Prior knowledge:
Layout: E1 8-12, H1 16-26, E2 31-35, H2 38-47, E3 52-56, H3 64-73, E4 82-86, H4 91-100, E5 104-107, H5 112-168, H6 175-190, H7 202-211, H8 224-227, H9 235-241, H10 244-259, H11 263-274, H12 295-310, H13 321-330, H14 338-357, H15 362-368
Parallel strand pairs: 1-2, 1-3, 3-4, 4-5
Helix pairs in contact: 1-5, 2-3, 6-7, 6-12, 6-14, 7-11, 10-11, 11-12, 12-13, 12-14, 13-14
Amino acid sequence: MKKLSECSILIVDDTEMNIDLLVEALGDDYDLTVAMDGEAALEIIAMELPDLILLDIMMPGMSGYEVCEKLKKDPRTADIPIIFLTAMTDIGSKTKGFETGAVDYITKPFEILEVKARVQTHLFITIAKKELASQNEKLEQRVEERTRELCLTQEITIEALASLAEYRDPDTGGHIDRTKNYVKILAEKLSTTEKYQNILNEEIIKIFYKSAPLHDIGKIGIRDEILLKPGKLTCEEFEEMKKHTTIGYDALRIASLKLGENSFLKHAMEFSKCHQEKWNGTGYPDGLSGDEIPIAGRIMAIADVYDALISKRVYKPPFTHRSAVAIIIEGRGVHFDPMMVDAFEAVNEEFRQIAIKFADCEEELVTLNEV
């Protein structure tokens, strides 16, 4: 914290006697600078900012009121405390001074003890304000650093959890990177529509992008002989596979109970549980239909199906981009939310570019580049 003895004061008065009195009273305690008129004072302040200004009101040329107004309009000098020096004691003059931005008055003729006391008081206040501002700035920096650390930890944890499911299913490859980017692109397009412009804001889209990789986290709980089966699943096996939606949801729900209200986990739970629901109510696990299906689930349904179609699997070759788009359009109003299919049609080329960027094999690149 700055010491009083380190403070600088600018004295502005057109009368030498007044200046001599103030210099004698304050010179031993502070670093003083003197100006005889308003213009000279502004020139001095432009070169070096004082900690406090003692400013005469009635001066030839620029008055103290005018000097004060100029200083208060400039962000660089607006916070410098100004104490007016004046022989005027009427309420109107004092009121005008305070309205202009002064913090106090010292009346002439000067009482030395009063001058010292008022100067010391306002310098203490100024030092305290600067120290508080400095501490607040440091606190804000620490909060920002901590927030960045927490966000990074969250992202790393998400990627680690999502990768566990990916390692269980070696066919998925770049599925995580592709689907989270599909979700982002589709949500951004939907945010331009009247229905979703107040729902899918920038913050929600960011949360969608970060939490989308957890949509298949429940596959960790599926037995290898089912999850890794190279051929078509039996009815019993498919029923078991369907449980990955609720396994993931339950795991995330338990975490949410410990963390409390958390929008990130809320949407992650929706991605996990609802991405296999269908618009017409024939999906799983709850058979939801239409707008009963959370937005996250409806968006992921398109992202997940598109990615499954354009990806190579042991039981099928990759579909072309054109074929995948046609299948999703065909599912409009049946498997998928019609409005979201329309948005997908508008950004399908961006989907293709994402698929190319994160393709798992040469065969997928070939089909994605087919016209």
